[in-house]
TrEMBL record:
It comes from the Bacteria. PROSITE patterns: PROKAR_LIPOPROTEIN. It comes from Colwellia chukchiensis. Residues 1-18 form the signal peptide. Keywords: Signal. This is DUF2846 domain-containing protein.
Amino acid sequence: MRVLTVLFLILLQGCASPDVVPQGPIFQYSNKPVNSGATAYFYQFDMPGVNACLLVGINGKYRGCVGYPGFAKVELQTGKHEVSFAPNSPIKIANLKFDFEFISGKEYFFKYQPTKLKSSTDVEIETQYNMILGQSYGWYLIDKSHALTELSNLRAWHKAI
């Protein structure tokens, strides 16, 4: 009975979604600054067993969806914002969040990855241990040139918020 309950909860969290591959446009970089705000890119690669997108919340409002693999671009006003992430499923529980100070005219590149894969230039923002996968994952601020190379083959989610 416990196994069935766990499987049911996984299904509710969006891990078994039929939407497997992001179908949106391929990433194209535009170096146009936002008038009075900042631009944040959130991206990730494959996550074992997860096929739905990950909702990006800014101050409690969903502003994008990051596929597995995929990216989301979010325009933000200057200031401190709560950034949260939740599976795009019937039950939307934020599984990781952090506060971040965004500066006008700046671009930020955040990557979700296992902690063991981070490079020496990646800046840890927030991490957590994933019991199911047996390792820690987290959001890292990535160097722009490295991020642009990684983003070049990623797609946006086809049903973005």
